[in-house]
Amino acid sequence: MLSGKVIGTIVSTRKVESLVGSKFLEVQLFRDGKDTNEYIIAIDTVGAGIGEKVLITTGSGARLALDRPDTPTDAVIVGIID
Predict the structure, then answer these.
(1) What confidence tens digit (pLDDT) does each residue in 21-34 have?
(2) Taking CA 25 as the corner, what is the angle to CA 51 and CA 67, rounded to the nearest 5 degrees?
(3) pTM higher than 0.85, yes or no?
(4) Is 25 exposed, middle or buried (0-12, 13-18, 19+ CB in 10 A)?
(5) I want to staple 29 with a disulfide (CB 3.0 to 4.6 A). Which of 4, 6, 45, 77 is the partner?
């Protein structure tokens, strides 16, 4: 799992049918608790907002985190850090 901070939203009016209705967020990743110059786009499943710290799962775990395992995704936000 990865952690990071939501820094923005991504709007995509055209996408694969299984992604319609998904919310895409841009996340700045943390390493050792500090901001990095690394960014990832993730599907939001928990209602995260800009400025919130989040947990992200990637790879096959990301597909399993969605209710639709046939959805092409590589990163999913699965938690908001308190």
Answers:
(1) 999 999 999 988 78
(2) 120
(3) yes
(4) buried
(5) 4
